[in-house]
Structure formats: C-alpha cells, structure tokens
Amino acid sequence: MPTTDAIVMLREGHKEIRRLIRSYRADRDPGVVAKFLRALTVYTYIEREGMYPRVSVLAPETELAIVFFREEHHIAEVLAAELQDMRPDEIAFDAKARLLMDIVERHMDAEDHMWFPQVRASVGRKELREIGAWMTKLAERAPQRPHRPDRQTAWDTVAA
Ligand SMILES: [Fe+2]
Known about the structure:
The chain has 160 residues and is mainly α. It has one domain. The chain is built from five helices and no strands. It has helices at residues 6-27, 30-58, 63-84, 93-122, 125-140. The longest helix has 30 residues, at 93-122. The chain binds fe (ii) ion.
C-alpha cells in the first residue's frame, strides 16, 4: 500500500510532471505533451479538491498562498485546455506548451520550497494522512483530459 501522506503524494506528482517537462524540453515530442496534460489534470484536480480546502482550515496562515496557487492552477487549466485542442503542427503549439510548462514549474517550485514546509510544520501527520487518503479517492474519479474552466472553477470544490 503506497503512502497516503498528502505532501508525499503531491511531491511525487510534482516529480512525475517535472520528468515530463524535462523530456519535452529535450526532445519536443508532442506525445510527451499529451502525457503531461493528463498528469497535470489529475494533479490539479486532487490538489484543488482535496488539499487546498482542508489546509485552508488547518493552516489558515497560508491562506493567501493558497489563493495564489488556485489562481496559478486556473491559468494553467486555461492554457492546458487550449493546448489540448491544438494540433502539434500548429505554429503556436510549442510556444503554448513551453509557456504552460514554465508556469507549472514555477508553481511547483513555490509549493515544494515554500508552502509544503509550512504545511508540514502546521498540520499533523494524522490529518495529512487523512487528506492523502481523500486525494487517493479523488484520483480515481479525476478527469483525465483538460477542460476549459469557467472562472468559478478555481474556487469550487466537491464535498470535503
Ligand atoms: Fe499545485
């Protein structure tokens, strides 16, 4: 049984996404973009629905960081949905893919280096395991492909 510590889970998601970003930057293989979009969609969903709402309550001192991260996810979802609808031979495909990856990388850096340590310091292991278990369930029903979000999507959450 894999660990369900929420921070460990999300760091593993980041690692997979970083690996795909490195791969695309090296080879510009459009097939890697499809894998990246799928990984990003699942990750975005479980973090937005599982992690942010709970940590807003358990570590309210990080609320403004979470607001910022929700907005970054929203921007990433808009670009991801546009990229999903593009053909790799369109002139802007590579530009949009690289811009999206730059934004996602910056977002993950901020979570890995700044936010996760704050959350680790404020939220107990038991709560983090409960959030992880909830995110594992969310992952099973997560969308696999980007959808164009409406503005509200960044803030809507399913039942916590
Ligand atoms: Fe995130």
